[in-house]
Design goal:
heterodimer, A: alpha/beta, 5-stranded antiparallel β-sheet, B: MetI-like fold, 11 helices, 0% strand, globular
Amino acid sequence: MSLEIRVRKKLKYFEIDLDFSCPDDHLLVMIGPSGGGKTTLIRMVAGLESPDAGRIAYRGETWFDSERKVDLPPQKRRLGYVFQEYTLFPHLSLYENAAFAAADRAEVGNLFVRFGIDHLRGRKPHQVSGGERQRCALCQALARRPRLLLLDEPFSALDVVTRRCLREAVKGLREGLTCPILYVTHDINEALFLADEMLPIVEGRIDRGWMQRTIAPIPDSEEAPPRATRQPRLALVY
Amino acid sequence: MDWQPFYVTLKLAVATTGLLIVLAAPLAYFLAYARFPGKSMIEALVNLPLALPPTVIGFYLVVVMGPKGAAGRVWEALTGGSLLFTFLGIVIASTLYSLPFAVQPLKAAFQRIDRRLMESAYILGLSRKATFLRVIIPNSVSGIAAAAILVFLHCMGAFGVLLMVGGSLPGETKVASIAIYEAVEAMKYREAGLMSLCFIPISYAFLLLVNRLNRGA
């Protein structure tokens, strides 16, 4: 197992208490209701927040260990992180953004071609669409040759069509990539489409039954509401 | 009309502005992001020149920079000269006097920056210092410009502090505001009026510029 995580952290309304691992070249989707601690978990893996207790290790290298007082700063973890909303640097062009921390600047051009934003190299982030910004953010994260890729609801601020497109792009990305990917979403379709493994997180804990409860129809109560007023529970369209 | 006091004022304002932006930026960064007990004490201390009468600041500077003060003695041992009644002396005085005018707008500009941008930079491997230089500074250009203009204007108007520390040596420490005062003292109202008139369009234009910069941010 290449990524091992065992963390506890007290939040305002509940406690995060998780213990799981993720093998190399696996895409692990963390799913669950909003405010369930998924983003906090990702931020702890990134080193932006510290757990109260526990251990985070990657391929034998300890990133965090409360007992041995190890807490590697985010700079030294060498990972790629794409936030929910674009966090490109507003003063730089898309190309400069992606090349900002690139291991090899020559790679950036290839990534831009692959993600279909090569014609936008010179534009500033506010001059392109949200989808294009997120593509660029992915390029920025990948150009760093990360050891681990963290995607925190990267496409949830986008419209459905763009989101579907980018989902495909992430799926395509998997082939050439050997690092584990942690992917946070609250969209079940997205999770089913992308995941090698799913980790439902509810109020800070792994809750394997959550998917079942969410997808399954309501147990027949009095009488089923007319078809038109029922919400589709799971739309199997990608 | 004698233009020399204007030249000294300009030189003083440019020197102070340059010096102060470089000095105040790290301090403003520290005040914007650091969290520690007693921070409000430090902030109040930085703002103190705003609340003190300029002559009080001037008095303490005279004490410290004078031949018996700590700074004065060190300076004399190093160079053999005095800090009082020199151009360098009034640069130091106006730097201290204008400190809050640089720190406040810079701090506000730094605080406007999305925290996630900084986190993103850390994750991309940038140290705190590199993040400050490569991300925070380029994204607060208009705040920095606003701070620079405020300091510049404030320096042009300085009077009491400069009179205490620098006296009124023509070409060295006699700035325009002091020249106007002396002209009035000598009953040369025409000269004082002309010099005063020069200030109005300059100050007005700079304030318009500050407004524009603040709107842009």
